[in-house]
Write the structure tokens for this entry.
Amino acid sequence: MLNYIIRRLLWMIPTLFGITLLVFVSIRLAPGDPATVMMGVGSGGEMSEGSDFASRIAAFKRENGLDRNVFVQYLGFIGPFNIKPDGHELFGGSGKDPWSGLLALDLGTELQRSNVPILEELGRRLKVTLLLSFISILITYALSIPLGIFSATRQGTVLDGAVTVVLFLLFSIPTFWAGLMLILAFGQSGLGWLPVLGLESKDAANLSGLEALWDRGLHLIMPVMVYTYGSFAYLSRQMRVGMMDVIRQDYIRTARAKGLSERVVIFKHALRNSLIPVVTLFASVLPILIGGSVVVEYVFDIPGMGRYAYEGLVQRDYNIIMATTTFSAFATLIGILLSDITYALVDPRISYE
Amino acid sequence: MKLSLLRPLGLSLAFLLVLPTFASNGDELSDGQVPVDEFHPQRETAVTPAYGGRVIMHLSSMPESLNRVIENSAVTNWILYEAHERLVMQNWETWEIEPRLCTHWHAEDQLILKPGAASKYESAVQIGTGDKSRWVIYGESELQGANWQVKPRSNQNASLEPLSVAAEDLISNERATVFTFYLKPDVKWHDGHTLDAADVYFTWNLYNNSHVDCDETRFQFQKVLSGEVVDALTVRFFYEKQYFKALESVGDMTLLPQHLYDLTDPDNKTYDPETHAEYGAGYEFSEEDLGEYVNSNIHNIEFVGLGPYKITQVTSQFIEAERNLNYNPQISDRLGYFDTIRWRYIGNDGTAMEALLNGELDYFARVKSEDYFGAATATEHFTKSFYKGYMYTGTYGYTGWNTKRPQLADPMVRRALAHAFDVETYRRTKYKGLAKQVTGPQNYFGPGYDSELKPLAYDPDLAEELLAEAGWYDRDGDGLIDKDGVAFEITFMMPTGNAASQSFGLKYMEALGKLGIRLKMESFEWATFLEKILERNFDCINLAWVPPIESDPEQLWHSKWDKPQSSNHSGVNDPEIDRLIEAIQIELDGAARGALMKELHRKIYALQPYFFLLNSPRKFALNKRVRGFQGFKIAPGYSLRRWFLPAGSEGTRATVK
């Protein structure tokens, strides 16, 4: 098993580089560049009087190494050589700050806000997104497992049909629409029950511990709902299918023939095996939740990882795009690996030896 | 001048309002009176301003830096209106330039001496370096016969006594190009240091350092040949040549505290006396070191300014400023009433509107038309806590033609394209009559706008005639007009998600279709859209400009900017327009300059490089508890220092402290 894990980890290195190369090429092929955006985005789509566009754009490209050929730029991203004017002498820099890039564990600073180191910002944003993801995963599993069992054990009944319709409806609703509808329903435009913006009130700094917790809780309700309903619908169906597969097995028939109660059959004998597909899905849900956070964080104005990726894309901030996609790719690869390992752990029939 | 997306202005036809209307351009401001609380439902109720409380403003984008030397963005500028002060400032109501950090200033003429003539005059001084070095005498000058009589006005002028200078000794006399500013005493930076002339000189000198990230605005300050610290409170600048906005550009400079930005200042915390001692008095950091230090200085975020508010918090969500109790009221009696101002960043306008309704914002100035005239601002919740209004800042929407395209090269064709669309009906139906049709690029309310000019009337028959006269008619019977075997097909380019552009584009497509012109619509997200404009890769674009009251027309219309990566997107290249622009730039008399601007307006009107559309107002929503709102023609259109909570409101008091 250990050999398998090491082998998989080693394979992740070229895979990750392949992904970064694909993203790097794609984003450079896309129209628009950060230097042009800089002229407009900094002021909400307004450019100020007396702007010498050409000089500013040229200086911006020079400062950020965007005037170098694209292969050198990719090398700059990978590292460890800094290709900017203050970078390694090998690339014509002053030598003041020779090392940077992925290999030097330095993803640089944002292009539009050069005083913001990306790794630090990524850490800050990730904390927010992970909080949402963690709560969402807990709720998803807490609801979808019993619901899946409920549906599977009542297969073909009106209740099962109703649950199926509701889950399909939930699964089909686009998250941005759901977010806006919740805001309209529960924000001040509607019932006025819940805050609609961010993760804390404007005066959160003045609140006591319990008040702050309550405030945070209220702010989390709608984002978590939007975060959760899609994966909840999906996992419930997976659980239903898993349970249905298991209760058709011979050993379940045997258990029933022995005269065991239905409760014991389901919860003692069927449940563990029916959980295998759902548990293994856990590992792959995490990267999906991080990716899915773009819409939720944008709609609810939450400064998380998803919104960071979106802002980077809109502003053509190559450094943010590369950092967030590399991180997501890494999380996905780890997720897949964990998923495979979990399979082997929960199902003795699977072995990687 | 600011370029913005044409804001969505779709109005609900189901909701008719009788709207207050402004008189024709300019006249409502002529007496310097701007109505207070014009749209507030209780405007008739007298209230007493009180100090204290907090106001939360909306920011649609987060500034990278609060140091306007390196970030020339509108949002930074707006925040610094409260957190900083300038040498001079344009009066919001009268538009006159008034002293702010200085008690007064002197503007003197610069008599540039021919080579060799300097030796004749003891008071001649050499300014500038390299190719731009020159010998000058400066003062108030008057031509009397063959001589200029020069009287020094400023303190410590090199010509301490009046003198006579032979006209034949001069290369030229550049009027009002030497500015001497006299700073007010006891003006303190937020950290307690005293402002002095060295700070002003230091800041200007940063623009001469190629390593400082001010490339966008550097050219404005490169018009200044030389500067000098005359004494602790007096600083002088010499302009290269006569320029009507000279005072504004130096006077509006964002001053930086030398003790926080200069590595060689002993008051700087990073100043290392041992290093200086080791290298001796001549030791200096390189320009590159200084540039990097300025660009990455912590105070670009933790900004230290001179205004009545000091920045206390900057997060990824908001910027907060609190009252500066050490603000010297000699600078301005506009101390501001609120104790705290928070600028809250919300990138999405829909979310921002919800945030307003949820009490997370007090002011939001990007209210969509459908919300302004629709249900969102008619609910009990809204009318109980907020009110809505609008203000004009000279914004005008336009469809810009790429005159380098063969179909659009002929002014006659462009006039026909303007006659083809019924702007008046569109204005009345779509904008409920709130917008005003413009005919030229100058600020609608400014002195350079020729209100005598009438918009080109809707006349499809005339449009057809003009097109035929220009050689465009349907030769092959396919329903499209053509010329030289090419059908008249053009693409209307707009930013993605812009409802106003979309709505106008569809109507325009229909109107041009009747003339046999195919208008295709294409939208691009902002980055791509901007890139295509700067590369001049378009047929026509839909955008809006926000010109200041009086703008220098060079960047938009001079042939020297008829190239990609410039603001002359339409590719105007006309010697007469160039001549007018150059005349405007050196004309110091306001009335004469206004006449030249109007002449330029007429010339551009004749050429029609843009299909000039509508001056539409900014629509805002404001919390009812906030009083003192006035709508100004200068962006952002309001002055926070005039806003207040009425006496008796929670957390307020009668005095500043």
